[in-house]
Input
Amino acid sequence: MDKSQIVAIITGAISILIAVAYLIMVQLLDFRGEMLPAPISQLPI
Output
């Protein structure tokens, strides 16, 4: 294997790891439930 093939494999593996980490993060954030807006009644006028 030349150096360019090794670099391509390493960058591909890093890309897949980032994609999987992103999907896990999105699933965890989605698992928390529905996003509710902040209550307006507590804002100072």
In short: The helical segments are 3-31. Residues 21 and 27 are 10 Å apart (CA to CA). The chain has one helix and no strands.
